[in-house]
Amino acid sequence: MSALRRNIVANYAGKGLLAAMALFFPPFYLRLLGAESYGLVGFFGTLAAVLNLFDFGLSMTLNREMARLSAEGTPEASQEMRDLVRTHEGIFWSVGVCAGLGVVALAPVIAQRWVHVRTLPVETVTQAVRVMGLVFALQWPGGLYNGGLLGLQQQVLSNVVQVATTTLRLLGSALILWLVSRTVQAYLLWQVLTASLGTLACGVMLARHLPAPGLRGRFRWGVVRKHWRFSAGMTGISVMTVLLVQADKLVVGKLFTLDQLGYYTLAGTVGNGLYYFIGPVFAAVFPRLCQLVTTGDEAALRALYHKSCQIMSVTVLPVTLVLVLFVREVLFAWTGNADTVERIWRVVVAIAVGTSMSGLMNLPYALQLAHGWTRLTFWTNLVAVVLLVPLVATLGRRYGMVGAAAGWTILNAGYVFVSIRLMHRKLLRGEMWRWYLVDVALPLAGAALVVVPFRLWLHVPAGRLPTLCTLMFVGGVAVLGAGLAAPAVRALALDLLSGWRRRLRA
Questions:
Q1: I need a labelling partner for 471 at 20 to 30 A (CA). Which of 109, 215, 229, 311 fits?
Q2: Are 45 and 128 in contact (CB under 8 A)?
Q3: How many CA atoms within 13 Å lie on the side-chain side of 384?
Q4: CB neighbours of residue 206 within 10 Å
Q5: pLDDT score at 3
């Protein structure tokens, strides 16, 4: 099995387990904490996303440079890799501690002026926000270490660490809330412990897999200056992306009550759950794209780009269709609460459609980063911020939570129909229509030919477990239909079958 194929399989296995846990535990947390306290959990996610602006593009720079330098394989490249890690971790820990302390200091202001509470005491919210600052400071460097592991293509190991720490975090949180204390403070204090363990594990694993163990890394500003243009471009992209991705959450948090934010967070857990299907392909393909750009192999780069885009479509589009067309059934199988289903199903549809289009753009975005080209994404994001953030606020005020979520859908539709055209004028010229028609439209049609008839004529049985089993069957058949319609995926499947037959005969 090739390294790329092994990484994709490992990423899907790891992300599949993470997705299952991420979908299983939130309804449990909602019941134990209540909608208002669970809203603080959603606020923590938004706060962490905003604080990620202090990344300054360094984690993606480390990922890209680890992949590029590993393709060179020289002693000088090994030393530079160690210097990169030492320099970046010094910056990350310093900025993370300062950002965490800033949240602790501003906790009373955030509790009183931003979060709208009904029954929770302001003191409780203040304490929770202070613990959020501590959690962020401890878990943030773990993202840098994990980026280094991904760049080294140690993705099996990365998934093992992520699954282990996430299991400890989610299962431990549930047990704490069930057996010890049903308070948001108890939930967040457990996050402090698991954040520390996760960051420590990623850091140790990265140190063990750096080349040339006899070399010692040094803190050198020179490695930052060398890559400052790419890092600056990534910083600009990060700022714009946070404003765009978090605009709907910020609007809901500002305009609506904390319990409504809790329901919106629950809807986002489902709609954004598609990222568990998106991330594995990006993580596996991006380092390989960087290596092919470094070696200048244009033919292999073109083939990998289209193959991976088709894999992304076959993975994401069938799941999206099942989620959108069977949304009430999916939500009832998940929560078992008809009232919750009616509150969030429209929001889930809007978020899911937007997230699926975002997933389709992930590999074109990876191609741009592999070439070190950040300008297009930065300027398109800037234009989107200027146009979309006011639109999200207007839609949120007029149509409520569904309006805020619709802004996310509009944003990603713009990327699919505008950014792709602009990108292919410079990179892989002449390949745009192949992306639209072969990489996206064919898998979408293959999935739709399965899901739409099922929606029209299938009677979904009553009961949560039968419903879940039925929807999983529909989703599996839809993936099969999309895969058969995608030429590269079909060829890959036939190649795998031939390999298995040869092994059996041997």
A1: 311
A2: no
A3: 27
A4: 25
A5: 63
* Domain residue ranges in the chain: 1-226, 229-501
Which of these, 81, 52, 48, lies nearest to 67 by C-alpha position? 81
Give me 231's structure tokens: 């890092």
Exposed e or buried b per residue across 76-103, where buried means at least 16 C-beta atoms within 10 angstroms of its C-beta: ebbbbbbbbbbbbbebbeebbbebbeeb
* Residue owning tokens 């962490």: 48
Q: What residue has token string 């790891």?
A: 14
Distance CA 197, CA 191 (A): 10
Half-sphere exposure of 434 (CA within 13 A, CB side): 15
* DSSP letter string, 424-439: TTTSSTT-HHHIIIII
Look up residue 504 and give its amino acid: L
Count CA within 13 A, CB hemisphere, residue 335. 24
d(CA 368, CA 375): 9
Helices (H), 214-337: 221-226, 228-245, 247-255, 258-271, 275-295, 298-325, 327-335
What region does 238 belong to: left with phi over 0, alpha with psi -120 to 50, or beta? alpha
- Tell me whether residue 272 is exposed, middle or buried, using C-beta atoms within 10 angstroms of its C-beta: 0 to 12, 13 to 18, 19 or more: buried
Nearest to 233 by CA among 348, 73, 64, 84: 64
Alpha helices (H) along 152-183: 155-175
Tokens read off for 50: 């905003």
pLDDT along the chain (506 residues), means of 10: 64 68 72 73 70 66 76 74 82 82 83 70 80 82 82 78 83 83 81 86 84 74 70 69 69 71 78 79 82 85 92 92 91 82 88 90 89 85 79 82 84 88 91 94 94 87 82 91 91 75 66
Burial of 348 (0-12, 13-18, 19+ CB in 10 A): buried
CA distance 389 to 382: 11
**What is the b/e burial string over 411-428, where b = at least 16 CB atoms within 10 angstroms of the residue's CB?**
bbebbbeebbeebbeebb
Residue with tokens 């501590």: 134
| pLDDT score for 294 | 80
- Stated as kind and residue range, the H or E segment containing 349 is helix 338-360
Integer angstrom CA distances of residue 363 from 141, 346, 485, 486: 25, 28, 20, 16
220: three-class secondary structure by DSSP = coil
Alpha helices by DSSP H, 400-425: 401-414, 420-423
* Cα 479 → chain centroid: 21
Phi, psi of 374 (to 5 degrees): -105, -10
